[in-house]
Amino acid sequence: MWFVGIHGSNLLEQVAAEKFTEITGSIVSKSFIDNFVIMGGCGTTIALLIAILLFSKRRTSQKLATMSAGPIFFNINELIVFGLPIVYNTCLFIPFVVVPLIMYTVSYFAVYLNLVDITINKIHWTTPIILSGYQATGSISGSILQIINVIIAVLIYKPFILLYDKKSDSANAENMNSIIEILKTSEENLIPITLTELKSPAGILAKNLVNDIKEDLQKENIQIKFQPQYNKLEQCIGTESLLRWTHPIYGTVYPPLVLKLAKESNLLWDLESFILELCIKNLEHFNQKFGSDFKLSVNITVATFYNPAFLPFLEKMLKKYNVIPQTLCLEITEEMKLENNKETNSIFNKIKELGCKIALDDFSMGHTSLKYLQDNHFDSVKIDGSLVKAMLNNSRSKDIIASIMFLANSLDFEVIAEFVETKFERKTLESLGCSLYQGYYYGEALSLKDFLEKIK
Quick one: which H or E segment has residue 53? Predict the structure, then answer.
């Protein structure tokens, strides 16, 4: 009955009371069933909870089990039955039904063979195991039987929990691909979307990921890696810090998705301030090895750019870690439009006063406006990767890059090309006047340690 969403214990409570209430001296009684068969609630769910805590790798299951531990200790299992859920869960239906039957059989023969004393007392159903086993039989043998039963039940539940994880992971992988496609489509078409409000499995996954991001941010489990930037003389002149969040189930999560979910859940400032401090803290290592001409770029969203806490935090971090401000470049990412007003100009001017460089990411796409260049705020721009990818097959893309280079020479700002993956692309960019490059042709993003060891 539980499996189809009906509270079987409540529905059949009167039947159980009429059949088994009295302690008659026989092996089977209601007290016998409550204390040795349905420990933790119907389905011997205390064993299910322990199996989840021991063997499941799903964070949602672990969190639910942790929240359910208190109630189940007192044989209240609704939270895990309806929260996991067990209702309509084909992976857990078999052990949920079979485990109590096995517990009944083991307990019956344990008493029948005089290994455990017969149940002689009525015990309130909320009494925790071990204590209830002792009180029901008046002997420690009752507690020992409960422990043995729970161990057997946990071992039975184990393979089904692993199967449930595997099945859930497969479904969630599909949902992850779906949510990434939804986000990419939104970005390409410039159509706003709120992923956590989607009425679909992808929306449920988005909400779960938000909780995981929040938890990992609190534990400082968010990482950054560094991708080198080179000039045409094959000299490493800088690096860009890149967000990397590794999920225990999904692996490395698509970074724009992490930022999108952080923004939707009001975690964006927490995330970006954490990354900014970590980068500034590590800047000293780059300065020591590569000198004061080396530049570390850190991505800053427009939302963070306008956050009142941003400038005071930036100034505080620069002083705290005593770094060379000119070696830090703040790269503005255009997930939303920069306003061309006094507030924007004031923020730019303050960043300049602090000594930091400013770059415009994905130039020529998205919300980019030539007005940004008119006021001479940017020290460099990064050519959008889609232009670099398309230039070999699209002459107009090459013309756009050449036009950007003309502007760069006229207005005195640097241009970095992203997504440079082949020597031919690099040579083509050089022929168009671009002399700074970043991409897999020069290497993937590395940890700080690997970067300092491998990059010359």
Answer: helix 45-55
The answer on pLDDT for 1 being more than 80 is yes
Q: What is the sign, positive or negative, of the torsion defined by CA atoms of 407, 411, 412, 414?
A: negative
Mean pLDDT (the chain) is: 90
Least confidently predicted of 224-238, 299-313, 366-380, 413-427: 366-380
Q: How far apart are CA 362 and CA 369, in angstroms?
A: 11
Smallest CA-to-CA distance from 413 within 358, 331, 352, 356 is with 358
Where is average pLDDT lowest: 17-31, 35-49, 309-323? 17-31
Q: What is the DSSP letter of 266?
A: T
Q: Which of 414, 412, 449 minimizes the C-alpha distance to 434?
A: 414
Map tokens 């344990």 to a residue. Answer: 110
**Residue 220 dihedral angles phi and psi, to the nearest 5°:** 60, 40
Burial class (CB in 10 A: 0-12, 13-18, 19+), 281: middle
pTM as predicted: 0.77
Compute the distance between CA of residue 346 and CA of residue 393 in angstroms, rounded to an integer: 42
| HEC string for 310-325 | HHHHHHHHHHHHCCCH
Is the Cβ–Cβ distance between 135 and 143 less than 8 Å? no
What whole-number distance in Å separates Cα of residue 393 and Cα of residue 399? 12
The C-alpha atoms of residue 170 and residue 242 are separated, in whole angstroms, by 28
Rounded to 5°, angle at Cα 142 from 138 and 147: 150
- For the chain, the residue count is 456
Q: How many whole angstroms separate alpha carbon 247 and alpha carbon 253?
A: 7
Burial (0-12, 13-18, 19+ Cβ within 10 Å), 231? middle
Q: Side-chain half-sphere of 283: how many Cα atoms within 13 Å?
A: 30
Q: How far is CA 444 from the centre of its chain?
A: 22
